[in-house]
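Appendix B, record 7
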Amino acid sequence: MSHTAHIPSHRKPRRSASKIALRAGVAGGVLSTLAVAAAAGTANAAEPVSETIEMPTLTTDLSAQIAQSAAATQQAADTYESRAEQDAAAAKAAKQAKEDQAKAEKKAEAERKAKAAAAAKKKAEEERASRSTERTTLSASTQSASDTSDAPAPASGSVGSVISFLKAQLGDAYVMGASGPNAWDCSSLVQAAFKQAGVDLPRVSQDQSTMGTEVGTSNLQVGDILYWGGKGSAYHVGVYIGNGQYLDAANPGKGVVIQDLSGYPASGAVRVL
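Structure tokens (predicted):
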């Protein structure tokens, strides 16, 4: 026995001819099937594909419905347009009415102011006429009194109450800063006198010289306030009582007295009544 007889062989066994022939036949059949299928696919791909879609046919009822819908849409559009025009007309009318009302109110207000101004002007003229008459009467009374006696002028009306109060203080003392009832300085006496007529004057002579209406010393009337020094910087005040005279709280040596303007001419005068 050979020394290698017990080692099995590693060579693959030979395939039999029948198995090889069988496998060849199967492969040929598969290839034939694939070839036939490919040919059929090629033929089918070459032929065009067409599809017919059948469209619906409009019937008489459908046409009528479409026409009715279109008419309804147009009617709605016309209605909206008409309503928009009506709204615009109403807004315009409201705006015009508002403007007319504003004009009417403005005109009525102007007429009311004009009437009020006319009434105020008439009243002022009547008051000026009354004061003028009053001053004329007081001047005449003062002149007559100076010719006959030292009797005070009658107290009639607002100016009369001022003059009457002033003359009632004749002989009182002059004390700087005093405000009555038995001692005065020049401005406190004037302030207290005009308070009798319902006129509130400032306390000091500087401010009193800026009150009322400026008048010339050559056109004085009874009740005018006389001042000495500059307007707004006056250092002394008194009240004109007519006949070229004035009444004032003069100084500590004289007290409250009546003096002649010729001896101590005033710098200016203001009229508050």
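Remarks on this record: Confidence is low (pLDDT under 50) at residues 30-46, 144-156. Residues 34 and 40 are 10 Å apart (CA to CA).
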